[in-house]
Amino acid sequence: MILDIENASRIAKEEKAKGKIIVTTNGCFDILHVGHVRCIHEAKNLGDILIVGVNSDRSKGVTSKPGRPIVPGIERAELVDSLKPVDYVFLFDDETPISWIRKIKPDVHVKAADSSYGIEQCVERFAVQENSGKVVLLPKTSGKSTTNIISKVLETYG
What we know:
The protein is an alpha/beta fold. The chain has helices spanning 5-17, 34-44, 60-63, 73-81, 98-104, 125-129, 146-157; strands spanning 2-3, 22-27, 49-55, 88-92, 108-113, 134-139. It has a single domain (2-157), classed as Rossmann fold (3-Layer(aba) Sandwich), CATH 3.40.50. It has a 6-stranded parallel β-sheet, with helices on both faces.
């Protein structure tokens, strides 16, 4: 279900009160690929309720890349929402997820990361830990990225 951040926060609070483990993750999900899907499935396995933040079209985390996003935000949110493990989705405008993490207060926040990325590079770790949550780094699926897909399309059809 696609919500705004206020409703996602309210639902997270209600579900936590019932003893549910709240898991969050986020990303642009510009061209949905198997790496995204695998991360979302693994994230859901870490708790009961999975809430996914999708960078809006205005988010600096997206617009800092030339020509991006390719797919409009509401469509990206709809695609993520269609994945079986996902319970709730919302769009966010910020460059980082820090502000909405402070509202949702997840028990677990998941990041897909390559081997060079450690917990100390995770800018949102303090916001997660403020509410006794933990950050879990999942390995990225090697060779699977939106950038690689775009490059292959341009190479083949450009």
